[in-house]
Design goal:
It comes from Serratia marcescens. This protein is mainly alpha-helical. It has helices at about 1-10, 15, 20-45, 60-70, 75-80, and strands spanning about 90-95, 100-105.
C-alpha cells in the first residue's frame, strides 16, 4: 500500500490528488477502530480468540496418549470393522476428495 500510494500521488500536484486528505482520513479511521475495539474488549468483555472462558487446558501424559491411541472406538477402527476387517481390504487409495477402498467381499 505505501509504495503504491507514493507512486500514484506524489508525482502529481496536491490540488489534483488531495493525498493529505487520505492520510488524515486514515489516521481518523485508525483512531476510531482502536477506540471501538479497545472498548469492546476491555469494557464489554468481548471474547476474542485466546480470551474464551472454556474449560482448563489439560496436558496429557505419554500414558494417556498411548491409552487413547489403543482404544477401539476411534473412527478409523469403526470404519475398518464396518468394511469387514483388515483381512477384507485389498487396497486403499485416495485423492483430494475421495477415499477409495478395494474390498475382497462386499
Amino acid at each position: 500500500g505505501l509504495v503504491e500510494f507514493l507512486a500514484y500521488n506524489l508525482p502529481l500536484p496536491v490540488s489534483l490528488t488531495r493525498w493529505p486528505l487520505y492520510v488524515v482520513i486514515g489516521l481518523v479511521q485508525f483512531a476510531v477502530y482502536y477506540l471501538v475495539f479497545k472498548t469492546l474488549v476491555l469494557k464489554l468483555n468481548l471474547k476474542t480468540p485466546g480470551r474464551e472462558d472454556d474449560q482448563d487446558v489439560k496436558l496429557y501424559s505419554k500414558q494417556d496418549y498411548r491409552n487413547r491411541k489403543n482404544t477401539p472406538d476411534e473412527p478409523s477402527g469403526i470404519i475398518i470393522r464396518a468394511l469387514g476387517g483388515k483381512e477384507n481390504i485389498i487396497s486403499v487409495d485416495n485423492c483430494f476428495t475421495r477415499l477409495r477402498v478395494e474390498l475382497k467381499d462386499m
